[in-house]
Batch of 2 targets.
Target 1
Amino acid sequence: MSVTTILQSAKQAAPALGRANTKQKNELLALIADALETNSNRIIEANQVDLAKGTANGLTKGLLDRLTLTQERIQGLASAVREIIALPDPVGELVRGRTLANGIRLAQVRVPFGVVGCIYEARPNVTVDIAALAIKSGNAAVLRGGSAAEQTNKVLVSVIQSCLAGAGFEAAAISTVDEYGRDGAVAMMQARGLIDVLIPRGSANLIQTVVTESKVPVIETGDGIVHLFVDESADLEKAVPIIINSKAQRPSVCNSLETLLVHEAIAQDLLESLIPAILDAGITVHGCWRTQELIDCVPATDADWATEYLSLDLSVKIVANMDEALEHISRYSTHHTESILTESIANADRFLLEVDSAAVMVNTSTRFTDGGEFGFGAEVGISTQKMHARGPMGLAELTSTKWLIRGDGQIRG
Amino acid sequence: MSVTTILQSAKQAAPALGRANTKQKNELLALIADALETNSNRIIEANQVDLAKGTANGLTKGLLDRLTLTQERIQGLASAVREIIALPDPVGELVRGRTLANGIRLAQVRVPFGVVGCIYEARPNVTVDIAALAIKSGNAAVLRGGSAAEQTNKVLVSVIQSCLAGAGFEAAAISTVDEYGRDGAVAMMQARGLIDVLIPRGSANLIQTVVTESKVPVIETGDGIVHLFVDESADLEKAVPIIINSKAQRPSVCNSLETLLVHEAIAQDLLESLIPAILDAGITVHGCWRTQELIDCVPATDADWATEYLSLDLSVKIVANMDEALEHISRYSTHHTESILTESIANADRFLLEVDSAAVMVNTSTRFTDGGEFGFGAEVGISTQKMHARGPMGLAELTSTKWLIRGDGQIRG
């Protein structure tokens, strides 16, 4: 089969999934959750092939870990699918509606996109996640999961396709183009009219390639150079746990803190209070010259301000005032998440108004920018673009809308 | 000044407009409406230069007409700006909000995109329209209006820029790159990070170029091969006026009817009832072979089904059943507007569910797919894509959103 045939088959399979009611989609998801468990040995066998190849190719320990599926992790994948069953169906949700003066009834309702494409790297859990989210939102999905996980993804998709066929849907509704390597990804980016929206997930490099090369509309899920500004009125008893939580609770993810900005009037007190917690958490501070005068730290260079560490490193800059903090954020932020710690309502309001990011916070940990924490129940990714979806994306963000217009013979005057 | 400087200046000017309150923006719009009127002679002078050039270059009568500004039309532009003053400000509108179990208050509010780009052709009214809509929604705008209207647009933008400066905003907030010709358009399509969203308005050719070449996110405003299906249960007394209104009320626009699909059981009755109205309206029917057996008409070829006439031509096809109608629509529709005329609730529901278009109608004229008719008060265009906006776009569609997250020391467990 050619890539184009796969894409066309996915498009043809999409309407039936789009029209399926919630009960039918949930029954399909239940089949998939069960099939993942009953096929776990087969999945692990395929995964072993990928792991052996990855080891031979010198993949890093971190990548090998993300690639690995165990009985326990497969159980986790099945549980994630079952959690999606419990979520409300976004399809058919009324977004807006009104009756016009002439009696025409307008209703804007959510409808599936049609075919969702996802390009990602070496994380077999994304295969199951995106397939389940696509099914629940009535979409077909075409997946390109990276050559490192090719054998694992092949088995996962074949398990899902068996369930689709068993539930009376076309198997092609969830397809992979992994076997075509990079050509598969290129074909997806060219597939105007076949793929309705493309979501890249993975490294900044992968995302940039897709965003700039794709002719299909893309939802950009970007990296996070996340800032936290401690103003002069901040409450130190709140500040220390928020900073440590923002940085250290899970440093490898996009909503973790990278740069701490501190008002000069509170810098000495704050940094003194922070030191024990920083040492305790194993955080390495990269400090500006003023920070260097107050605490032991690695001298920060300009490159630090533009770095998403994704590790227990933290750059710290002392600023003269809020203007300087906002300028720094405006220059270096990736528009993901920014937080202010303040007891001043005026400063909080100014920060909320002026910072142009997907999530802007007052007195909370930056780790809260998360679909699960927002109550979405599942997360497709975190959008850092401004079109269609911004911030954590749940099932609703995998839908478009349609205007239903009901009349009784009206014509336009 | 280079194109890049213009784009950078627009980006720098955007935040002040984004933060301006409704009163400030409305005062600016009132200044612009007045200035259009007081500068009407200057505008008409520049317009005469464009018209003379257009005549020399052999522009069609239609294009010359769209290019022409008269005192009356300038008065119309000023009135349109004043109507935008009266519309609600979309910025700050609460989209969703909730308080999480941990006490964090989440609010998703509308915020301006930042910089909106518009690429269009030889319609100076779009210059004023987009500028006013951008200002009301807190956005800066960069405009590329086509060489045919270059002198007119230059004066219009300079009038608007004087008003911006007079109201304390940076003049660069509304800018044109017309002087750079095609290079200006190319620079806009490359301007990731400077332009947040690009809206092409004009010919199918222009839109296709922008959609496939742009590296900036695009909202596609497409053409309409609009279908109307008359099923066997349709009420002929409603059907005739709806069909004539859909086709003939304003045939040159995207929501006018192009293809009439008729169930075979009602074909003879319907076409007989239609003939006098068709003759009266001056409509030319391009009929399928079965239509040719019933009425005098031009034989339709396959090309007719794929043609947006934008004239008093109408293709007519007799179908055996609703399946055939839906298949025809699925094959030839541009996903703009489709309508069914029926008295059967089952057929209406099936049509509303299965037709995948921005607007799907029952028993109304297709001409109702319109921002004004929907009560939006102003229309940026009609989106035929599925991301961000679908169907008529008002001020809300010129905004993104931002999550405001207010806490009191919460950290993630």
Target 2
Amino acid sequence: MGLFEKHQDFLNDAIKALHERNFYAAYPEFPSKEIYGENADADGQEFFKKSFGKRFEELKSDGAEGWVGGEESPYLGDKLGISYPYFSSDDLIAKAETVSEIWRNQSPEDRAGILIESLEGMRSRFFDIAYATMHTTGQGYMMAFQASGPHGADRAMEAIAAGYEELKRFPETASWVKPMGKYEIRLRKSWIAQPKGISLVIGCSTFPTWNSTPGLYASLITGNPVIVKPHPKAILPMAIVVAEIQKTLRAAGLPEEICQMAPDTLEKPITKELAENTSVALIDYTGGPSFGDYVEGLSGKTVFTEKTGVNSVILHSVDDIEKVAQNLGFSIALYSGQMCTAPQNIFVPKEGVATPDGHVSAARFAEVLKDSIKGLVENPKAGPFVLGAIQNENTSNRVKQFEAGELVLEDGEIENPMFKNARTLSPKVVLVNTSDRERFSEELFGPLAMVIETQNIEESIELAADLAKKHGAISCGAYTSDNNVKNQIMNRMASSFTPVSFNLTGNIYLNQHAAFSDFHVTGGNPAGNASFTNPEFVIKRFVWVGFREPEK
Amino acid sequence: MGLFEKHQDFLNDAIKALHERNFYAAYPEFPSKEIYGENADADGQEFFKKSFGKRFEELKSDGAEGWVGGEESPYLGDKLGISYPYFSSDDLIAKAETVSEIWRNQSPEDRAGILIESLEGMRSRFFDIAYATMHTTGQGYMMAFQASGPHGADRAMEAIAAGYEELKRFPETASWVKPMGKYEIRLRKSWIAQPKGISLVIGCSTFPTWNSTPGLYASLITGNPVIVKPHPKAILPMAIVVAEIQKTLRAAGLPEEICQMAPDTLEKPITKELAENTSVALIDYTGGPSFGDYVEGLSGKTVFTEKTGVNSVILHSVDDIEKVAQNLGFSIALYSGQMCTAPQNIFVPKEGVATPDGHVSAARFAEVLKDSIKGLVENPKAGPFVLGAIQNENTSNRVKQFEAGELVLEDGEIENPMFKNARTLSPKVVLVNTSDRERFSEELFGPLAMVIETQNIEESIELAADLAKKHGAISCGAYTSDNNVKNQIMNRMASSFTPVSFNLTGNIYLNQHAAFSDFHVTGGNPAGNASFTNPEFVIKRFVWVGFREPEK
């Protein structure tokens, strides 16, 4: 049985899920022993410990110019000392070109089979990836497991399903019979989905697999060889993924160079060299807006970006203000706000938020929010694990130095019981008004939230929509029990191409975007031009080319 | 019965045709009296005569700043004197913004119903449009009828079908039920296809409706208001189409400004003002490459272009060299080569084209081609009608002045029995070799073909593929009975994203791209970045935006 046949039902389920958009987890998200095996977690810890200070030998390293690496653990406060085979950009491009025809000539079925098989390999490494992710990004264990493991694999599977569906959208051949009165013209036509060329996937330091697997698998399923350029501070998680892909390719008798890893260092980056190479046709990018704008500005490339945005919450009327504050407090604290979907600006109208017990002013809501965050942060069984660690010192410094309006909750280090040297920072909350627009128009990545008093609900909506349009937004929360206000919010945020989560309380948060259901980033505002995974995300990676000839 | 119900079966047939890619003519292409009515042709002539020197009163003209027009008939050698209501770009944009919400809020069903109804209106004007097209573009009567009428309407219907299908691709709402062990989280999710914004459709002077209806209807079906900016020398054909759309909108109780006409003059063009306006989100452009590059370079816009290319024919082995020359001769002569799909470069290997009677050299083939073209051009019952007239004097001048290699067939004026003042030019044919590469690398729009002697078939293929990659190509012809050579051509031309027609003889030509079957322009090489009508052509005009809330 071939790999396609082996995984065909799974693929069909995924395609179905893509269209139903109900809950679907291709890979179970809970790190359960029943699902992943009794020793999986311990093996993952062991793998991580053994990797320390060594060469990562799983990637194809023939002809490597050297070994590089500069990762540091935000938990350990120390270098990992892991090194990876280094190749020059010219070498990487030349190898990708050499194998491009081989990969292009695989059928969509064969490519799908191989790629899903590689996800089985990734599945067997979910705990290795989890520890690798913790100790590069600073994510808490649970998020590191879920986001980098099952959710990352889900997003990959989603891209495979979407790509496969598009590749099969039109018939491979058709008889074209044109009636001409007394006779007819008959042509045999055929079409191929020609891959655009070499694909470059540029990773980020906070979600190294989740943000990179969609582009990686979308490019591969549509026939493009891929070069993965991880963030120099978060190489290991993707190194494992790429190693598993290379293993599957090798087992299928194909060259590993169809998917290459291109590690570099902060001191000698190779991203621009790769991105500007004329052979690179596709670029996926996740990261800061200034490099993102550079990537989007490269001519002759098809580019998919996720940059950052200014995410808003609009408060109007709620049943239970405490529950709302708990939900938002968790959203702000989760991974110390180092998520592109984390809320930053919370707009409260001057008259306050309507509740069954009367109106709650912005100042009062800021206090309730403070209490909710403090309750979470100071709970030793929850706080350190929800917050995780700060990936980059600059993030800590920016939050620490931030001043605006009235300080409601000061940021601070919190102790992590497992990692004494962890770089931590609990959220800062400030109370401002609309005269501080300049301050809340910036994207302030990290544990920082602003409660902003506005004139009225209309101004709240206008500000949220306008910030999204000008600076981008990936998420938006809104709380209202008034249908008119709800429609107004939907209408205005839709104009700014921003999704909205209404009235979330309990264990579901506006930061979460589920594969097979939520399109992540709309692609319509400055937060990014691509969306996981809408049809555009796969279609733009290949070109339909037709052939025709007289039918015999 | 609503308009959607009225046209639902027709729409379903069109969607089916889009996927089967067999022959499908939504609108019959033959100007038959049985189909279009006994007096339709006479009425069309009458309409055109009556339009002369008058205001075109069918477009909404309230608040027009004046009336403009500068069309000239390449057949009559005279100005048409027709004028159209002129609005400033600011006025056009402001009006489009005013109506955008109204149009966006129409359901996909309502938009489809209205747009198909407008095509019924266009159908009733096919002969008006045919004469309008003849006397602006110089096309022969039959082409003017077919291309601007039924084929233009087919391409519009294709865009409606493709757009409607994409808009219905995902459910409007879904229940998202996530199992959480002892309980479950339930969200009600919904998605809308948010139109990107104001759409600008920039027309060309040679195929004013065929090249503009796809973008126009693709933008409208996906909810974007459209401003049609016709070429100043070919306004009337699109004025009729837009008038019919406005009529249908009015009858449906909707503002005509959902589809506006923006005529201008060569002396005072407004295209750049419109294109650069920040409210314009979508631009469709057909025309020359330099303005096309400018449009593609505008930042923050979603752009669809069809520019021009250097189309090649590769000769290797044929059954009947005369039949091949007849077919190619017709392709070169048709509308005097003023087609973006017309062949320009014919590559013949040094050893000649293999035929059952031995090899035919490049020089010999040039002679056979010359005879075929002369036979067609000098046939008074065919020549003038196949050639039509030259739209732009620059085209004539360029061909007349062109010199390279050995002159095989001199261009010349030919007499049109119906129009004494017609600006005509029969094809020029030259014989060159690969040292003249600089000459045959230019796109030489108009009646001009080069027979090029190459070292061997491999060089022919490389040149064709390389020119397509560097300068763009929209079509390619190839003649071979050798399967290896065929595969080599498919492989290399696919790498340059160029479709190939093999071994065409008889009444089917490489210039012809049929709606619902042939993707016109692949979008992968410099000849243009868009394709009629692949899914990308419609998907990029809107953005999926999701909403979610707890399910009650």
